[in-house]
Amino acid sequence: ASQLGTMRVTEQIDALEIMGVNSAGFLVLPKIIAGFICIPALVVMSMGLGLASGAGIALLTGVSSMADFEYGLQVDFVSYDVVYALIKTTVFALIMTSVSAYHGYYTSGGALEVAKSSTKAVVYSVVIIMLTNLVLTKLLLT
């Protein structure tokens, strides 16, 4: 939000529009696509690192053997949980990026308004994500 807001306040977006460039497609769409790709990828990496860390801790502390750890994964693994996590992550990524881009793109005024629009973007994103989480949980887990 702050990058787009600063570009709006310093009239860089207006300059792009005068040159005939679709500023929304040029500035907003890449941010949304990047969030759509990168945030779920980070979640997948964190899942893998969590499993590797759990195996490492189990092995180093001697709490359980590697065979027991692998057996526990095989018995308790539910593939739908991974799908559910990726669905939620993708939806939340789209919400975060689009709400932030919206508030940044439609900022007007000066530096104070850029800060206010960034704060609004964070607050609105958190509220929308919490409500969306409630809806997704009800739809996907019941």
The gist of it:
The chain has helices at residues 2-9, 12-18, 23-61, 66-76, 79-105, 111-141. The chain is mainly α and 142 residues long. Helix 1 runs parallel beside helix 5 and helix 1 runs antiparallel to helix 6 (111-141).
Q: Cα-atom Rg, whole angstroms?
A: 21 Å
Tally of alpha and pi helices: 6
Encode the helix/strand succession as letters.
Answer: HHHHHH
The oligomeric status of these chains comes to: single chain
Strand content: under 5%
Biggest sheet: strands, sense, closure? none
Structural class: mainly alpha
| End-to-end CA span | 35 Å
Q: Please estimate the helix content.
A: over 70%
Give descriptors for this structure.
142 residues; mainly alpha; elongated
Question: Would you write up a description of this structure?
Answer:
The protein has 142 residues and is an all-alpha fold. The chain has one domain. It is 87% helix and 0% strand. The chain has 6 helices and no strands. The mean pLDDT is 94.
Topology:
Elements: H1 2-9, H2 12-18, H3 23-61, H4 66-76, H5 79-105, H6 111-141
Helix pairs in contact: 1-5, 1-6, 3-5, 5-6
